[in-house]
Amino acid sequence: MVPDAEWVRIRRGLRFGQVFEGTVVNVPRPGVIGFFVDIGLAVGGFVDVALLPDQGEDWPAEGTVAEFEIWWADSRQQIRLKPADSRYLRRDFADYVERFRPGWPSEVGRPVPDPGSSVRR
Length: 121
Fold this sequence. Notes:
Layout: H1 4-12, E1 19-26, E2 34-38, E3 44-48, E4 65-73, E5 78-83, H2 93-100, H3 104-107
Parallel strand pairs: 3-5
Antiparallel strand pairs: 1-2, 1-4, 2-3, 4-5
């Protein structure tokens, strides 16, 4: 963990849809919880199971280098990512976005809100 002030500084530089090249560093339970990604910042990245294919064997393996987009950042010191490579997205990703994050296309490029802001995920 980094000091809160550092997290605030990092967050201020984040934009929805911003792309980072990252390395998958931990896939603790393929098909169950998601995986962790090192994107070269002092805080880690995480890809949630909800964005990934149903079958864990379709997820990138530890050590895979790929591009990831900023999907969300909440009060936790962790950047939520989505894979930029469609092979690593759930098959019905467009439908998922329509149901759960319909504002996503218009959010791309906007700053990630500060914790406690009224903007919802």
